[in-house]
Amino acid sequence: MLSSSSTTVKNLLLKKRLCFLLKLVCYVSSVFIFCEFLIYYVVIFQCRWPEVKGGAHMSEKETSTSVLKAIILADTHLLGEIKGHWLDKLRREWQMERSFQTALWLLEPDIVFILGDVFDEGKWSLPQAWADDVRRFQKMFKFPASTELVVVVGNHDIGFHYEMTTYKVNRFGKVFNFTSGKLITRKGINFVLVNSVAMEGDGCTLCRTTEAKLVALSHKLNCSQQKPNNSNRRCSDVEKLPASEPILLQHYPLYRKSDAECTGEDSASPEEKNIPFKEKYDVLSQEASQKLIWWFHPRLILSGHTHSACEVLHAGKIPEVSVPSFSWRNRNNPSFIMGSITPTDFSLQKCFLPYESRVFTIYCAAGALLVILILAHFQLLTPPFYFAQRLISKHKAV
């Protein structure tokens, strides 16, 4: 009889322990799933496409056909085999993959632009390492047939100017269908893709080729914007493009002294803002910047490279938006730009991704609560009521 009773008690204790263990597993799993998966849906779901002027007066069908929905991001810096620790790679690539795939699923953009520095070690990569980096990129940034992906070259993809070679440029171009001065036109909107690393202005072979392509493209765009009665002989045999003023997409920003005038929560830190920029390293030279403005008279310039956000006006009327890094390795608060663009207008809106500090705080709070639950379960944590009662009893005894 005693033996039977003892077995029953043991079974009950075992069931309680198993039940408690199951609750802990569910608790830990829930926190992990939220922080590593669901949080991206919660945060990106709050982002909305901006409206362009007149968009409120268009029907839904007119808006969907005339407005191009574009996502713009920059500086993903996929780690390579030289500087990339496997744990750092795993963490950062998971974060970027989940953010990108969630954004595609929730926002359904027509086109995505990545403004250079896709890879961190493209300037050094040997063929096998390059192939591995490309394979990982294609897995992370896969996209449906309804979306187009356009990638611009950056200095980490092919090296700074004096590290840049024809081999590296062609290798990048083969994977991403990029040339050093390319025009793409979507829904009557002209986008000019610039290899800003080749805008050194020193007459190197790649620099001369790039500038020649850009000059020819500039001529074609300028001829397309002229009215028929003003066209001259130089434009008579030129292929006509949509008359929309172009949008420049490049990695380096145009020349500016520093980030001192930049504002916003994702702008550079106060210590970094007043550090002067070095021409041809942090920004394009004044000469190259002026050339691009003269050649294209763009209505908008989008750039990356600095890893921080900034909005500036060139010549008092041409806006440039520097897009911050998409990687948590470079920022606590990565983001991307959502653009609603028409042939005559555009509207931009920033979409922030989960703050890493907040994710870390959730993990710390959940860990502290987990420790408290375990201590309380094994009666190793004195309840506040009994602790207070013991203090009162000791006081009375004295």
TrEMBL record:
Transmembrane feature ranges: 20-43, 360-381
InterPro entries associated with the record: Calcineurin-like_PHP (IPR004843), Metallo-depent_PP-like (IPR029052), MPP_MPPE1 (IPR039541), PGAP5/Cdc1/Ted1 (IPR033308)
UniProt xrefs under Pfam families: Metallophos (PF00149)
Molecular function per GO: metal ion binding; phosphoric diester hydrolase activity
Domain named Calcineurin-like phosphoesterase: residues: 69-308
This protein's GO CC annotations: endomembrane system; endoplasmic reticulum-Golgi intermediate compartment membrane
Cofactor(s) annotated in UniProt: Mn(2+)
Alphabetical UniProt keywords: ER-Golgi transport, GPI-anchor biosynthesis, Hydrolase, Manganese, Membrane, Metal-binding, Transmembrane, Transmembrane helix, Transport
Domain of life the protein comes from: Eukaryota
SUPFAM superfamilies recorded: Metallo-dependent phosphatases (SSF56300)
Manganese recorded as keyword: yes
Chief localisation class: endoplasmic reticulum
Topology within the bilayer: Multi-pass membrane protein
GO biological process: endoplasmic reticulum to Golgi vesicle-mediated transport; GPI anchor biosynthetic process
Subcellular location(s) per record: Endoplasmic reticulum-Golgi intermediate compartment membrane
Protein purpose: Metallophosphoesterase that catalyzes the removal of a side-chain ethanolamine-phosphate (EtNP) from the second mannose of the GPI-anchor protein intermediate. Participates in the glycan remodeling steps of GPI-anchor maturation to allow an efficient transport of GPI-anchor proteins from the endoplasmic reticulum to the Golgi.
PANTHER family: METALLO PHOSPHOESTERASE RELATED (PTHR13315), METALLOPHOSPHOESTERASE 1 (PTHR13315:SF0)
Family membership noted in the UniProt record: Belongs to the metallophosphoesterase superfamily. MPPE1 family.
Designated name of the protein: Metallophosphoesterase 1
